[in-house]
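Predict structure. Input: Esterase, 574 residues.
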Amino acid sequence: MRKFAFILIMITFYSCSPNKNTKVSITVEDELGKKLSDGRLLLLLHHQEGTEPRFAVSDDVGSAQVVGMDFENYQEGNGFEFDVEAFGYPIENLKDIPPGEYWAQAYIVKYETYKRSDGHTVKMPMDQWEGRQWNRTPGNIFSTPKKIQWNGSGAISLHIDQINPPVEEPEDTEFIKHIKFKSELLSEFWGRDIYLGAHILLPRDFDKRTEEHYPLMIFHGHFTPDFGGFRTTPPDENLEEEYSPRFDIYGYNKIQQQEAYDFYQKWVSPDFPKFIAVEIQHANPFYDDSYAVNSENIGPYGDAITYELIPHIEKEFRGIGEGWARFTYGGSTGGWEALAVQVKYPEEYNGCFAACPDPIDFRAYTTVNIYEDENAYFLKGPFRTTERVGKRNYLGHVSAMLKDMNYKELALGGNKSLSGDQWDIWQAVYSPIGADGYPKPIWDKYSGEIDKDVADHWKENYDLRYIMERDWSDIGSKLEGKIHIYCGDMDNYYLNNAVYLTEEFLENTDSPYYGGEVLYGDRAEHCWNGDPDLPNYITRLRYHTMYLDRIAERLKKTAPADFNHSNWVLIKKN
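Output follows.
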């Protein structure tokens, strides 16, 4: 007979009648409970079959319900009493969940203890090389979804019997290599070994032409399991075409395979310029990437990437190894990172191509001006208050409010920036450390009231437009000709507003004039990256080739005399 360790969660709420109670008990198998100590317990309810509740939490109106609570020092066999006041999303309180039939799931996000070099001891999730995805993190445990009748009375039991498996890391191929690199800077900060990774696409004849050294193209963005968009075989003949709800087309999976194969054919053609393309892996306890800058809460990722990882890659794979031969590019998070590293390390990179960047001017932190607005969630007038919008489509139709997007993270991760999602990572990167060792909130996650002292810290350290304007007399000459920004004028997250403000500054620069470009896509959503003639669902698959003409122009102006412009190769002399 199998023995079980029990976590007993008692949830009492009133639905139709205040006298009717519902009890929820959760059991955990012995082997899974033995490795459980600290974490966050999530109760998830979904109204649709076919998608596990853990994969159905979103900003949209069709989101699954999630309620979360933290726990510490779990002792095997002891029970937990689920706090009846635990915060939930989309419905805030358990008592307000309407009666009905749901698919229920219990999920535990495990926390680890970090003794950081700044003296703080914190508990938070650890990336397990999956890209800090809470619902997929290896080692996290959960129950098999179970259909329940939620009616305000009776008992509901869920059994945690599943565990996320380890990640299968990709294998090297002729063109794509993978590295995992221990960062001394990050390891010192976090008090344990911290690794950076990279997927590296090598040029044709790399092993044959060992005298050649190449420019480095650094693609910033989210964590990827392997180098994306490169395929050495034609599309699968029997591939069943899938529908893409994002782009509203059928067969997008086949389009992706064809584009990846076309890229390979270009890459190996004799007239295609040779360079090294790199996708960096820098997940951390807060998110699937670090934003590639130094941060009080996340650590010195900017220095680790620029001064540790990139020189290591250049040494191992014959990069030229100088700032004039490095270019950065990316979209969304990667767009912000591309511009940020160019601004903060102006001589270490020779050009950035920032598509649909996350807010680069915090006067337009999506739809919030953190310096002038008092509240992030509400617009308040003398006679009425209205919610601030958070997400739209190309027609301007709103699908999510900014408050709801933040409430989702509050339910998933609590009030310490641990949801692993968008607003929490911005806060973790940009904020000073709070007294408890966690990021100091830019605004109260529940009320939306903005902390102006935190806003000032953000401004001085991470508002890229402000930093460029403040320091232009010192860094302007180092940035001349290097800044290229692209954004749709109907970006889903209103990111174009910050680009407008930044463009206004850039166009008024002198001594020197910035000498780059800022372009907008007409009615283009997130993430338009600069091509006015092709749809976004195509251009987003061509990042590695889109900016080559501009890079070639930049190299002609700045490369040394011994650089071979016919194929971008520096042949180093013995």
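The chain has three domains: 4-163, 176-358+465-571, 363-460.
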